[in-house]
Amino acid sequence: MDRDEERGCRELLGSLAAKRIKEESKRLLQELDGYVPTLGVVRLGERGEQLSYERGAMKRMEQFGLKAKQFLFPEDVSEPDFFEAFRKINRNPSIDGILLLKPLPPQIRANLADEAIDPDKDLDGISPVNISRVFAGEERGFAPCTAEAVIETLKAYHIPIEGRRAVVVGRSLVVGRTLAMLLLKENATVTICHTQTGDLPAECQKAEILAVAAGRPRLIDESCVSQGCVVLDVGINVDQNGMLCGDVDEIGVRKKAGALTPVPGGIGAVTTSVLAKHLLIAAKRLREL
Questions:
Q1: For the purposes of burial, counting CB atoms within 10 Å of the CB of 163, is it exposed (0-12), middle (13-18) or buried (19 or more)?
Q2: Which residues, 6 or more positions from 193, have their beta carbon under 8 angstroms from its beta carbon?
Q3: How far, in whole angstroms, is CA 23 from its chain's centroid?
Q4: Which tens digit of pLDDT belongs to each residue from 172-226?
Q5: For residue 34, which of 139, 195, 203, 224 sits 20 to 30 Å off, Cα-Cα?
Q6: Do domains 34-125 and 145-269 have the same CATH topology?
Q7: Average pLDDT, whole number, for the chain?
Q8: What was the pLDDT predicted at 243?
Q9: What pLDDT is recorded for position 150?
């Protein structure tokens, strides 16, 4: 038994959830009768964090027995030229799902890109159609992969969600608000907080499940956590020493939390597996049309 377990804090590694998703994905791939889906990765420019995520996504597709094709554009591509090419990617029958890496350069209006992507190929839930589907609780909608990775992690470790008090710190559409909807779908009672919430520690202390996606390094400390709380750290930041850290102060929170996802090695390790699963679902649906 390691020291964390002796203190009662269980480490929730993303690798377990990723393994669970891979087993499910094997079954989905078998249902496609030999057809191998292809992911289209669309990137504009050479941003370091995008290159890193792209490499991880390409590697995950290979691990899952899937294909991936890159569509690369210079950072200064004009908006008309980009959208003309993007429409062709949307219509390409050999591309079953699309990952559009963000943020986009300033000359490309992100809202137009979100609206342009085919909802049935939109694997990361950026289309307004998919966001509406998720908020309406429809099965056909693809949720953003990071938000869904939180749910997959809880399920992989058999942590009950139904009837639990859940607090989400962060209100972005990409994670916070969407994650709140996914937790509601699992019958949790959900509160959304953010960096401007009055007495944030008091609100967080009410949580049995605390998911943090505020984009602030080590925002959540020991004072915010109730004894035995399950803490899911979605943040990925670089601290003043150049080290990766989450939105949670790991050292302090471990003293009280019942379980905690580490950074790195936690939610981030699950996200590309969710992407692969979405690709398989998209391919199956497209072939049924």
A1: exposed
A2: 167, 168, 169, 170, 200, 203, 204
A3: 19
A4: 999 999 999 999 999 999 999 999 999 999 999 999 999 999 999 999 999 999 9
A5: 139
A6: yes
A7: 95
A8: 86
A9: 98
Alpha helices in the chain (DSSP H): 3-7, 14-30, 48-63, 79-91, 110-116, 128-135, 145-156, 176-185, 200-204, 250-253, 268-288
Rounded distance between C-alpha atoms, residue 155 and residue 128, angstroms: 27
Helices and strands, counts by H and E, the chain = 11, 11
- 151: number of CA atoms within 13 Å, CB side? 20
Which residues face 99 on adjacent strands? 41
With bands split at pLDDT 50, 70 and 90, how would you rate the model's confidence at 139? confident
Task: Kindly report, residue by residue over 3-14, the tens digit of the pLDDT.
Answer: 444 458 999 999
Q: Which of 159, 271, 172 is nearest to 210 (CA)?
A: 159
- CA–CA distance, 149 with 269 (Å, rounded to integer): 9
What's the rounded mean pLDDT across residues 51-72?
Answer: 97
Residues 6 or more apart in contact with residue 136 via CB below 8 angstroms: none
Q: Return the ∠ at Cα 211 (arms to 100 and 109), rounded to 5°.
A: 25
34-125: CATH topology: Rossmann fold (3.40.50)
* Domain residue ranges of the chain, discontinuous segments joined by +: 34-125, 145-269
Tell me how crowded residue 28 is: count the other CB atoms within 10 A of its CB: 17
Q: Residues 60-83, buried b or exposed e (16+ Cβ, 10 A)?
A: bbeebebbbeebebeeebeeeebb
Instruction: Look at the domain 145-269 and name its fold.
Output: Rossmann fold (3.40.50)
Residue 56's nearest CA partner among 149, 169, 157, 176 is 149
Among residues 237, 257, 261, 263, the alpha carbon closest in space to that of 49 is found at 237
Q: What's residue 240's pLDDT?
A: 84
